[in-house]
Amino acid sequence: MSVAVAVPERVVRRRVDAERGLRGALLGLFALFLWVFLAWPMAQIVWRSLHDNRGAFIGLGNYVRYVSTPAIGVSITNSLGVASVAMAVTVALAFVYAYALTRARIAGRGLFRLVAMLPIFAPSLVSAIAFVYAFGNNGIVTRQTGFNVGIYGAKGIVLAEVFYCFPHAMLILMAALAAADARLYDAAAALGASRVKTFMTVTLPGVKYGLMSACFVVFTLVITDFGVPKVVGGKFSVMATEIYNQVIGQQNFTMGATVSVVLLIPAALACVIDRIVQRRQYALVSSSARPLAPGQGRLTNALLFGYCALVAAAILGIYAVIVGASLVTRWPYNFAPTLKHYRFDTIGGYTPLLNSVGVAALTAVVGTVITFAGAYLVEKSRTAAAGVLYMLALLPVAVPGMVLGLAYIFVFNAAGSVLNRLYGTLAILVISNLIHYFTVPFLTATTSLKQMDAEFENVSASLGVPFYRTFWRVTVPIALPSIVGISMYFFLNAMVTLSAVVFLVAPGTELAAVAVLLLDDAGESAQATAMSVLIIGIGLLARLVYWALLRGVTRRTQAWTTATQEPTSTA
Amino acid sequence: MVRWALTLLVLLLAAAAPAGAKDTVVIYTALEPEQITDYMKAVNKTLPNLDVKMLRLSTGDISARFMAEKDNPQADVIWGVGATNVMVFKNAGLLEPYAPKGLARVQPLFRDKDATPSWVGIDIYMSAFCFNTDVAKKKNLPKPESWADLTKPVYKGEIVMPNPASSGTGYLSVASILQRMKEPEGWKYLDALDKNMAEYTKSGSKPCKDTASGERAIGISFEYVAMKMKKDGAPVEMILPKEGSGYEMEANALTKKGKSNAAAKEFLDWAITDEAMSLYSKYFAAVSVAGFPVPEGLPKDISKVVYPNDFDWSAKNRDRILAEWAKRYQK
């Protein structure tokens, strides 16, 4: 009551009302954004799947036809099959690697981590192209050893997907393995448990949520990816390529929509379970836990080092193939060095690459602002409407990019719509990236907001400081490391994404990742790898800038804490 | 950061706005990228007032995009897209009849029969096999001479061809086989061919390029890419099948957009000039205006090596054939 003595109550109430109005208006804007660019396009997809190509309502007719066509139905089991196998292999491989990096004292951990991150910097199909160069019918390994792996088909898809998904699983597992309570290990040692027993009863249960999370992320990545099956799938059809065949090959847009909706189901399921699991994870490490110091027996250390060296060498080998193939005249017949593949005459020179950098930078800036401000508004206004928005913000992670791209054609090129102005511009590419990668940054922002003491707001409010000033002066500086991480996440993904934008590029708005796909389609694999090398280079450069920024930011604003956050999954 | 974002946004809007001084023409094409580079040099010199914005995709992709956008067409001009696809556009009412300047020089076979044609052909290309002699030696494969040879068990898993749904080259081969052998015999042949097929690729040039890199032994592609790979030093030979190659015409058309577009017409006029034809003739077995030379290594008179194509039949039966094809081989 003492505050009210200084300022007349009437004035306080008016200001509080105005603030509440502003807050509501901003929340409304956020809701409008999610409605126009996410909910409405998704509704269109579902709506189209219930109609035939002439626009007549046929209920579930398309779905009946879909599951009853044996050739198409096969793609469902194929997709589930490769996704499951790739998931098991990736998580197993990544677990040992992450374990070595977090729990053992081995040399070169920083380097191992960096090398394992490499596949994140390139579009998925690049790993497939590299595997063809190495293990294809006429790949160098095949030629040297005379042993043909038989890469075209399920085997090749699994191989290339494991390579592509490895860093995603590794990052999640590293985070999970890092959060261990040393007291449990002391207790196990005191009780005389063997190392194997300790591993089975302490280590594994401790990271079970991380393991599940990694499984789901990899599963979703594989089942929604179409770059890899496109290149090494051979005659093996999966759901993601099936959408492409229906839409592009047969111009059957309603069937494309139908496959899309079916593809939503496993991805959405994986995502829901993942969210439940994540919520439990938070409570796992209690505040009185003592961090575990890394350390293993000498033999274990040596074995783990050997394993990491092997995996890192394999990854570097694949990258060497990509760089090498881009620099020789005609792989594998003429190894004379040349730079001619870097001229990109046939696709208009460097325009696609510049477009990509521009789109990625814009996605990073606009995406960071929208996700962070959105997360803030949703977090601070505890209403039912905000709850709905929260659920909506979680949806994109389950939406395959191709589905989003298809939906955008339906919505943004309808006759007489005001949204048509966006079609064929770079802006629509930015927006589709924003939505496609919305969930993870949104959750990162939410988590970092939750970690902040609500007292900041309460104190500010009672001192009569409007919420937006508190947001700008207190919240943003505290969360700056997360914010930098979010913008990095948007940038890197926007550089390499393919699935949504492949439907949306227009004359003048070509993108580098799409150029890789088109060049490979046209059989210009050398130019495709050259473009990939440039994409990877820009990604690494951005990563360098990120580290520098993070260090600067941390030194200036995070003196009070030790933890920094970075979004880990790219699902 | 806010200011930075604003600056970028302004730049973006500026980039999205029309170029102003020049006349913009949006072109959708399925011509090979390396040819386009060559043609565009001439276009930029002869028509400096045009600001050409081009989307280049494979025949199937570009057609799907064009059909998907039919409620609000983006393209002004279709340039060098398979005639069978362009006929489908015409039937869907998406084209504006237009007689480009110099139409009289175009041979009758190469144009829409209407007085004011909805489409005008520019070139003919035909199916050809690429054969990697290096791979053949290693695997002891005889050289195939005919379509019939390709079904021999010795070639199992060694052949690639384009998917007829996405590639014009793929469709012309399938259509030609079905016209020559008639249904259902033609389908029986395709069943046998499917048994040897390693993969159906999306684009028409990819089978030959995969053959050139030694990934495959035999690729069913078209004549130009086969010649090109050979010239580039890949160990490949071009084979024109004994029974006759399939062939397809590539055509230009004007999009129906409700407003007249002078720049689009200007481009269509240029696209059948002697300048354009002499450039096309570097790459194709035949062009639509008579009297241009044939590329080295190709037969002087293509009528001797092709099986005559009934374009109307190909266009009319396209949906049915592709559906049947997908049912049989897409799994």
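qc> Chain B touches chain A through 66 residues (CB under 8 Å).
qc> done
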